[in-house]
User: Fold this.
Amino acid sequence: MYTNDEIKEIVKQKYSDIALQEKSTNIISCCGSSGCSTQVYNIMTDSYETVEGYNPDADLGLGCGLPTEFAKIEEGNIVLDLGSGAGNDAFVARSLTGNSGKVIGVDFTDAMVSKARRNAEKLNLYNVEFRHGDIENLPVSDESIDVVVSNCVLNLVPDKHQAIKEIFRVLKTGGHFSISDIVLTGDLPDTLQNAAEMYAGCVAGALQKDDYLEIIRKTGFSDIKIQKQKAIIIPDDILADYLNSDQISAYHANKNIIHSITVYAEKKGVCCSGSNCC
Assistant:
């Protein structure tokens, strides 16, 4: 089993590689991690192509939902995009905030931040800012954000409790988030659970769905709801790298273990303390 620091280094190295390669390479692999599938497999099956603000240069095919579609972003909002990558969701959010709003993207991969900044410069967007930082310790002031979005990123964070607490901290009272993420509704085989490639591929770090939602609730968020859910099917050629034929059959017998969800929640009060909160 990997330590939190080892997981972060695995993810950082993999996503640094992704930032420097073509999108066409990313989309033939599991969640953008190269070299783990011989058939077209992209965990992101929702298309951005008709979404206002979409910029193909910023879309690396790494998401698992369309959080901006559900995030209730309004003109003038300050929006925070966690794990902003090359800027795809940030630019979509900017189309909704307009000139009077602002979008801040945070990513802990230097190459991604650089790529996003270049994309913003090409688009001449003065009110979109990309910061290097860790989601477990956000470089963002308390109570400064109206809306948080994130697309298939929190599953990569080792300490999800701390990440959710950070989201609560930076949101204004009355603010909310809409986050697309990978969760489980069953147990992964140990060889998948412990595979470095599956950590970088958005699977091994995923929590059980009920546990994920409970962390959100205990942090103090309210009006928690699932806005969208879909099953994620891993092709057999990926599974074969980690499981034998009998194990693959057993895995398929437990259908729809891995899901993408888009979850919404609001911050209405202060983060509580004690054994049942935060």
Observations:
- DSSP finds eleven helices and eight strands in the chain.
- The first strand starts at residue 78 and ends at 82.
- The longest helix spans residues 4-19.
- Confidence is low (pLDDT under 50) at residues 27-41.
